[in-house]
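This part of the workshop introduces the protein records we will be handling. A record pairs a protein's sequence with a compact description of its fold. Backbone structure tokens are a discrete shorthand for how the chain folds in space. The question running through the whole workshop is how a given chain folds. The record below serves as our worked example for the rest of this section.
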Amino acid sequence: MASVPAKPKQAWKPAYCTPQRSVISDGDDVIAFAEYFLRVTKGVRAGEPLTFTDWQQWLLRALLERNELGRLRYKRALIGLPRKQGKSLLGSALALYGLFAGEAGAEVYSAAGDRQQARIVFEEAKHQIQRSSSLINECKVYRDAIEVPSTGAIYRVLSSDGKLAQGLNPSLVVFDELHVQRNDDLYDALTMGSGARLDPLVVAITTAGFDLESLCGRLYQYGKRVAAGEASEDQFGFWWWEAKTDCDINDEKQWQIANPNLALGLLDIDDMRVSARQSSEAAMRRFRLNQWTRSQESWLPVGAWEQCTGDATINAYDPCWVGIDMALKHDSVGIVIAQPHEDGRIAVQAKIFHPDQEAIDIHAIESHLRELHNELEVQEFAYDPAFFQRSAESLYDDGLPMIEFPQSSQRMIPACGTTYELIVGKKVVHGGSPMFTDQVLSAAQRMTEQGWRLSKGKSRRKIDACIAMCMAIDRATRRSSNTPTPMIANVW
């Protein structure tokens, strides 16, 4: 126990990492344990002693840093790596070190969103033990557990049912692919159950996901704040490799930035080239560039929305159109103004309302729409009658040109397609609002028999302002007749 995590070399340094505080670490102990007791189980080096690469050695030393009191600095850690970087081998080595060299009565767990995923690291550890005459004689190996009778240590597999983890006292947890964890229960049970341990550690090793509001997404965002010094936290470790956000997926320099094994020449670059040609852009970014894609299949090319940032001023005396995506309880409400400008672009501005406790403030929504009617030359207020019919009738009685826009595939498919073409063609301009941007980029394509439209996909992020924008842009560009009819009309 005594080694300094050397400064990461340019070729394989992570995009984000928590800064070093101490020069003391257990990393070299794990490195020596692996080389002496463990073997490579796959590939051309199968059977050889397990020696870690330069970046893996640096990571182990950083992860197992000790503070000035001699205690492990980190209680929780998140490591983000693309596929084919040896995550399972790294996790199994950590688990076995914790089992055989950890404190007496150690409890080590392999955890994941489902038992099959959790078993990947555990099975790798079992293979290591079965190939080591020294280790196999010290333990008893079962289907889902490994025991070391001389120390009372045990290593088990756990899956997503957090209730089964209640009452455990983990000393080390290796959480595999945290991005697929459906809720926080298992993670919370394991992190909160280790308070009696001297040096507990829960380390998640994962690829990127698509839901930044998931457990993994929240930890990822928090880790970036910690790494940047924006959050004061000394017990959360964060190391994340990823390519530049708006990079071309064919940029081979970015491949090396995201893949430390590729940077060291340990991966076949031709395999990466095949992935870039044959995989979807979202899959390439998530699994090979380790980027969060916000949805499983992004509806916009990377960077397209950001390139539309500019002066989105709405002129009070020029015609504009308003889209309203209404909700009653849990979703937000998006109200978007779309106004064609003389330069051929359409300026869009969003107002987003969030639920107050359990319900949306309908009065505040109606008041805002009346203000827009009084201050701007609004030609139409397009709304989905599903949740807004009563308010629409009241607003229509007050003189607002209310137009029904049911969110059926017949209406939303062309509206979404038009919006896509205008954004990609840089014919939309917005002011760069972070909340508006988040909702636009969180939308996903959903295929129907008639074509694609936007939806949340599997993400829980809000997209109401994005839907309202599509409605407003559709009306602003399809206006064959701009004369409001003397009734609440259906746009079709």
About this structure: Residues 392 and 402 are 6 Å apart (CA to CA).
